[in-house]
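Sequence and fold
=================
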Amino acid sequence: MSTKRTAHIISHTHWDREWYLPYEKHHVRLVKLVDTLLDKMDQDANYRSFFLDGQTIILEDYLQVRPEQKDRLTKLIQDGRILIGPWYILQDAFLTSGEANVRNMQIGHQDAKAYGDVSKIGYFPDTFGLVGQTPQLMQQSGITNALFGRGVKPTGFNNTVSDGDFESSFSELVWEGPDGSQVLGILFANWYSNGNEIPADKEEAKAYWERKLADAEKYASTGELLFMNGCDHQPVQLDLPEAIQTASELFPDTTFVHSNFNDYLAAVQRSGKQELSTVKGELRSQRTDGWSTLVNTASARVYLKQMNQLGQSMLEKVAEPLAAFAHVLKVGEKYPHHLFTYAWKTLMQNHPHDSICGCSVDEVHREMVTRFDKSRHVAEAIIDDSKQAIADAINTFGFTVTGEGALPVVVFNTSGWERSGVVSIEMDALRLYFRDGYTLEEASALAKAADLTGRVLVDASSQSLPCTVEDLGLQFGYDLPDDKFRQPYMCRKVRLTFEADKVPALGLKTYAWVKKEAELVTSSLFTNERVMENAAIKIDIADNGSFTLTDKKNGRTYRDLGVYENVGDIGNEYMFRQPDGETSLTTSALQAQIRVLQDTAFQASVEIVHEWSIPASGDDMLDVEQRDLVYYPHRKAQRSTRMIPMRIRTVVSLSRSGQGVEIESSFNNQAKDHRLRMLFPTDLTAQTHHVDSMFEVVKRDNTPASEWENPSNTQHQQAFVDVSETGTGLVVANLGLNEYEVLRDGRNTIAVTLLRAVGELGDWGLFPTPEAQCLGEHTVRLAIFPHNGDGAQYEAYTAAYQFQIPWTLAQTGIHDGQIGLTYAPLQWEGEGLAFSSMKLNEASEDVLLRWYNMRSQHAEVKVSTQLPQQNFYKSTILEIQGERLAVEADGALTLPVGPCEIVTIGIQR
């Protein structure tokens, strides 16, 4: 009898390392699960296959406790019965950087290969939406599929609608990225637990399979039906072979097989009978009612997002390029691959969706803070070693003719573009080591008596520059040499602040603080105490603390910028819910205290203080509704009538060379159940806007789809959001503020969430999370960059990307060296391209450079280097050596870059 359909039963467990329980409590359960799995597989050959959730960290977690089981586990992997990889962890897509996702794939492959084959499955079972570049990332990883649970709404064969951008007629679809890359998409239309706990009892099995087969066929395009035998932290179903035998006897027209993803995907591709829908770009559940998109995890526990932004930037945008820089100069220690792997793994342990999204119990997020610190401390150690090795390789003898007692300072620009900006360094004006015979009293007295007068800052051409000097007094310090015991000292510390001008991309520029007679011309960026102005923009502060920005390049004025908005939030860590009928509070009618904070030739800053009162919390009904598990869209709670003070201190700064204005906002939150945002009305005519996402500047609609019912249309961002019309636009950049909304208020206002305070986890039960109220001190940073469109927006995007990256400075001495006072090891150019990373490949020690095309049109990148190299080659995100690329007569490489392409170039040395 010929069969009409095949039921592919894939055993798995979706393993959230931490969520509604702290990590170690889930960890204990994981050890029990894998113990059981190994015993079952060893004892029963009919239990054929198990998918280990696509993340190799499960192996680390298990073997940390059960190292003696490694051989058993390895054998089952090598026999193809346990499938592992391709990721290190199952990350959130929108809250982790592009490079973090690349490292995740690289380390997942590296770790999986140590055990056996890497499972080439694009696995995203519970990711809270997917970025548009996923198909390209999969293809570059040798993966031709993506299996996911969220983002697309299928219609089903019997209710097929015309193809739309974000709809699929079936659970199988073609997913296309902005560059044209395509993968076979498999939507878990009935979730990744639709084959969970299959009955072995005949009567129960008959009812179970009649329902389950019908549910799968409702969406499937072929007779190859997928049943996921597992769920969150699901134990192994030990009687699955018996349950499959029962099903086979009950439904002879169906072949039931204990399958795996490789066999299932091959069967789908062989059996494709229907024309599949092509879904393009981001999968964010745009064609839903908007209530269950989980987008507001972007603003849950904002402090985690800020720590993540800093941690990612320190690793990928500072430590990696500096260590690569030091390596190619052959100075300092070897490129520390082992330390980078450890730091990335520690950081990525915070990247699963229930972790970085801030939607777990409080114990989970306390542990995350420690991991963020640990990863950052490793990055800082690598940075300190690398920058000092490079600084000590600079020939600084030229400063000896400029003045006496020169103290050189090196400014590193680890962004991919030339950069100017205000920098600051704490440096030693005098250092006295105890090893030289000084007592503490003698060293302190000499350091205190040091003469700091008569010094100026000079550049490589001996030009004197404006600089502020803050005497920090006596400080104790120590060195930790590689070849001797620690070396303590006393020093006289100063802080120098100045504007570094045109520091080359991925390079350095050296200055010196010297004794020299010089008369600096003083100037100010203030035209009055409320107005700051440079060559590009003008800022005018209003009585209520908002400001007007005038773009002097095109005359466009943006008004009422920087107003604060506060509303109640009776939702949870997953979703925002404003109380019905509530009127937003704003600072637009609140008188602010305003004063000049800094007035130098290179920077102007204004301090704005709001003394505000907001409701203390939700009302008593909120607690009742939480305990009764009332679904958050149906809640009727309001805000308390009790008001408490909220003091907000805002610093607005403009630098002499700045193309935008920077904003720092500090406040002590003592209120609960509310959301705080900053508003930037654009008054631009636009139906769409652009936003930074993973390896993409994506275009999104200002107005949601017709199916959308949620009054809120908040969305994810990474570095910035841009609202533009022909000839003008406004970019609002942020540091770790991943939620924004373009308001439908007639002004196309960009609203950026600064804080969201809630008291429960949400989802499937009551899990109180008092620490998600985020009580205490907070500081957030933003920047605004106006532009005139027509290509200038990419310059604004560059400024927004550079805003993400801390400057790096180092003090060095007077010495000979192999490089000049201004230096960069390589140069590149490419209109519309964003630079992403510079690092070394562990296997080859080749330098790897990565860019992505921000535009949907062809471009090219031209790369030249002062370094001796054997050849250039084009690679992928897995950074495997490819075919040699031809270079021009001058040794430079010009490479075409496709629309929205992610391009990686290797330099073999």
About this structure: DSSP finds 15 helices and 49 strands in the chain. The longest strand covers residues 487-503. The radius of gyration is 29 Å.
